[in-house]
Specification:
alpha+beta; elongated
């Protein structure tokens, strides 16, 4: 694993799951804390943020604060704006979870939101991380018209609180 990947994983943990840190409103973390207490350099932080192909991180304008844009397990008061989703979104998971999904739909589990994508390849890659991939298609526009909220983050990533079973279709197992 290259150094940048190691740093990216460490930063993801510190920005998404560190329940001992007092995040600022909107999920911001002070860069100086990461430099002084977690062995990052300013240059490393900037490289991780700029090189992240999934667009998970964001630096503020003067590069004194950094945050993860999604994937949090801690409550941060993220500023999300509701958006109209495309007709379909996709979710990748492992086929071993199919029984649970058929009973409960998609739940955020340890995160605050269910993560969906416009990109089938991204969903399949996500599913592969957890075992034999399972690709699900979500009737997102139909959900939205039934009153469910969707939040667009970036790079085709969408968040919602829950996807009931009646809005899911198995694309592949």
């Amino acid at each position: 694993m290259c150094n940048l990947e190691v740093l990216s994983r460490k930063l993801a943990y510190l920005l998404r799951h560190d329940c001992d840190y007092g995040y600022e409103h909107g999920g911001w973390r002070v860069v100086s804390d990461l430099i002084e207490n977690h062995s990052f350099t300013q240059d490393e932080l900037e490289k991780v943020v700029l090189s992240d192909s999934k667009g998970r991180f964001e630096l503020n304008e003067d590069k004194t604060r950094v945050r993860a844009l999604y994937g949090h397990s801690v409550q941060l008061g993220l500023l999300l704006t509701e958006a109209e989703p495309p007709e379909f979104l996709y979710h990748g998971t492992a086929s071993k979870y199919l029984s649970s999904i058929e009973n409960c739909g998609l739940l955020p589990k340890s995160r605050q939101y269910v993560h969906l994508t416009e990109n089938i390849e991204t969903a399949v890659k996500t599913g592969m991380r957890h075992g034999e991939p399972l690709l699900l298609r979500v009737a997102s526009q139909r959900m939205a018209s039934d009153g469910y909220s969707f939040y667009e983050r970036n790079n085709g990533l969408w968040l919602t609180h829950h996807v009931p079973v009646n809005f899911l279709e198995i694309v592949s197992v």
